[in-house]
Design goal:
Order of helices and strands: EHHEEHHHHHHHHHHHHHHHHH
Largest sheet: 3 strands, mixed
Structural class: mainly alpha
Strand order of the largest sheet: 1-2-3
Distance between the termini: 12 Å
Shape: globular
Strand content: under 5%
Number of strands: 3
Length: about 500
C-alpha cells in the first residue's frame, strides 16, 4: 500500500468547506442582490482555486504516496470512513476543478436570470466533484458522484437553450443508468471482501478478490463510470447536453464532469480490480478507438459550433480511454494528463463560443464569418482553444496525446494508427471551422458587435495561461502523475 502522510491541518476538508460556505452565503443573500451574489461566488470559487493550486504545489513528489490524509470513522458499524487524501492521480483533477470552477463563475458574470439559484446549484455541483476526487471511501465516492449529477438537470432545463428540456432529461437518465451500475458493483465488492469496510485502500490489497470477482465487478464499474466519461456507444447524452447547457455549465460539464467518469474507472475500477482491468483492456481499447474515430467523423457533419466541440470531446475522451486500456505507465500518465488538458481546453472552447453566441445569437458556422476583424479578442481565444484541441506542440494537449499514442502504438498498433488518422481528419475539420468563423468576409449583421471587455477576458486569459504553461513545462504535470502511476504498477500482483 502507498505510504500515508496524515495532514496536520485538514486542507482537503477546507476545500469542501469553501464550496459549502459559498453555497450557504449565497442562500442567505436576498435574490435581488445579484451583484453581491456574483461577488460571493467569485470570492469562494477563487478560494477553491487558491487551495487546489496550493495543494498541487505543496505535494512532496519525492515522498509520493497519499498525503494530506484525513481519516476518521463516520459510521463504524457499517465500515464507513471520512477518508480524504491526495496523490498524483487526484491532485491534477482537483487543480482542474478549481480552475474551471473559478473561470466558469467569472464567465457567467453577465447572467441576469435567477442568479441566486444558478450559482447555488453550481456550488452544489462542484462540491460533489471536489468530494469525489479527494475521497478514498467507496460510500462517499458514490454519494459525491450523485451530488455532482443532480444539479445538472435544473442548470440545463432552466438556464439552457436549444432543446434544453430534452437535453437535460437525456443527460439525467443516462447518468442515472450509470449510477445504477456503479452501486451494485460497489456493494458486490464490499460484501465479497468480507472486511466490513468501504475503505478503498483496505479493499485494494492483493488477494482480496478472486480473478472472477474482479472481472465481473470491473465490467460494471467500467460501464457505469464510462457513461459519464462519454465512452462509445454510451456517449449520446454528451453532445446534446453540451449544446443545451448555458456557457458556464458547459464549461463544468465538459471540463470536469466527464473527467469524473474516467477518474472513477481509474480510482475504483482499476484500483480494486486490476485483474479485471487487464482482462477487459482489449474491449476498452476497441471502444475507445471507435469513439475517437466516430467523434471525428460525426464532427465533420456538424454546422453548430457547440456540436463541433461536443463531438470533439467524445473523440478526445476516447484518447483517455485508449491510454487507460494500454495497461502501461506511459498510457496511464497520458490518460490523466489528457483529462487535465482536455478539461482546460474545452472550458476555453465553450467560454469563447459562449461569448460569441451571447452577442451574435447564433452558433451556426455558416452565419459567422470574419470574427477576427469584428471581435478579434474573442476570435483569438477561440483559435487558441482550436489549436490546443488539434494537438499543436507547446500546448498542453500535445504532450498528453503524445504519451497515449506512444503507448498505444506499442500495445495496439492498429488502434493507435486509426486514432492518429482520425485526429488528423478532426484537425483539418476544426481548422476549416476556424477559417469559416474567424476569417473571410465579415457578416455585415455582426460588424457593430462589441469585443470581449477586460473583465470578461480575465477567465479566458487564465485558461490560456494554464494551457501554455503546461505546454511549455509539461514536466510539472508528468512528474506529479508519475509519482502515482509508478507506485501503482509496483504494487500490482
Amino acid at each position: 500500500m502507498a505510504p500515508m502522510a496524515y495532514a496536520r491541518f485538514p486542507f482537503l476538508s477546507l476545500l469542501l468547506l469553501c464550496c459549502i460556505g459559498g453555497l450557504l452565503a449565497i442562500l442567505c443573500t436576498p435574490a435581488a442582490q445579484t451583484r453581491r451574489i456574483k461577488w460571493i461566488s467569485a470570492v469562494f470559487s477563487g478560494l477553491c482555486l487558491v487551495l487546489s493550486a496550493g495543494l498541487f504545489i505543496a505535494y512532496d513528489q519525492s515522498a509520493g504516496g497519499l498525503q494530506f490524509v484525513e481519516k476518521f470513522p463516520w459510521v463504524p458499524s457499517l465500515g464507513i470512513t471520512w477518508f480524504n487524501a491526495a496523490d498524483g492521480f487526484n491532485l491534477p483533477m482537483l487543480l482542474l476543478t478549481g480552475i474551471v470552477f473559478f473561470t466558469a463563475v467569472l464567465t457567467m458574470w453577465e447572467l441576469e436570470t435567477r442568479v441566486k439559484e444558478f450559482f447555488a446549484l453550481t456550488f452544489l455541483l462542484v462540491t460533489g466533484v471536489f468530494g469525489l476526487f479527494m475521497s478514498l471511501d467507496l460510500f462517499f465516492i458514490f454519494v459525491w458522484y450523485d451530488v455532482s449529477l443532480f444539479p445538472m438537470y435544473l442548470l440545463i432545463a432552466v438556464w439552457g437553450s436549444t432543446r434544453k428540456e430534452y437535453g437535460a432529461m437525456k443527460l439525467t437518465l443516462y447518468l442515472l443508468a450509470g449510477s445504477a451500475l456503479i452501486l451494485p458493483a460497489i456493494l458486490y465488492l464490499v460484501v465479497q471482501a468480507g472486511l466490513s469496510t468501504f475503505d478503498l485502500t483496505a479493499l485494494m490489497q492483493p488477494g482480496t478478490f478472486t480473478p472472477y470477482q474482479e472481472k465481473f465487478a470491473f465490467l460494471l464499474l467500467y460501464l457505469g463510470f464510462g457513461i459519464l466519461a462519454g465512452v462509445w456507444p454510451f456517449h449520446t447524452w454528451s453532445p446534446v447536453g453540451h449544446v443545451a447547457a448555458p456557457t458556464g455549465v458547459s464549461m463544468i460539464h465538459a471540463g470536469v464532469l466527464m473527467k469524473i467518469g474516467a477518474f472513477g474507472v481509474l480510482r475504483v475500477g482499476i484500483f480494486l480490480c486490476p485483474a479485471g482491468w487487464q482482462h477487459w483492456a482489449p474491449l476498452m481499447a476497441l471502444l475507445a478507438t471507435i469513439g475517437i474515430v466516430y467523434g471525428a467523423l460525426v464532427g465533420l457533419r456538424q454546422t453548430d459550433l457547440k456540436y463541433v466541440i461536443g463531438y470533439s470531446s467524445v473523440s478526445h475522451m476516447g484518447i483517455v480511454g485508449l491510454g487507460l486500456a494500454t495497461v502501461t505507465v506511459d498510457g496511464l500518465n497520458g490518460a490523466v494528463f489528457q483529462m487535465f488538458a482536455h478539461g482546460v481546453m474545452t472550458a476555453l472552447f465553450f467560454s469563447a463560443v459562449g461569448y460569441i453566441y451571447d452577442r451574435t445569437h447564433t452558433k451556426a458556422v455558416a452565419e459567422l464569418g470574419g470574427l477576427s476583424r469584428t471581435m478579434p479578442v474573442a476570435a483569438a481565444f477561440f483559435i487558441v482553444a482550436a489549436l490546443t484541441g488539434i494537438g499543436v506542440p507547446c500546448l498542453a494537449s500535445f504532450w498528453a496525446e503524445l504519451m497515449v499514442f506512444i503507448a498505444a502504438f506499442r500495445v495496439y498498433p492498429l488502434y493507435g494508427s486509426l486514432a492518429v488518422g482520425a485526429l488528423v481528419v478532426s484537425a483539418l475539420f476544426i481548422l476549416r471551422v476556424v477559417q469559416r468563423t474567424c476569417y473571410g468576409p465579415p457578416n455585415q449583421r455582426l460588424t457593430h458587435l462589441p469585443d470581449i471587455p477586460p473583465l470578461l477576458g480575465v477567465p479566458r486569459v487564465i485558461l490560456v495561461s494554464v494551457i501554455v504553461f503546461f505546454g511549455l513545462l509539461p514536466a510539472f504535470m508528468v512528474n506529479m502523475i508519475q509519482t502515482a502511476t509508478v507506485a501503482f504498477f509496483n504494487g500490482l500482483p
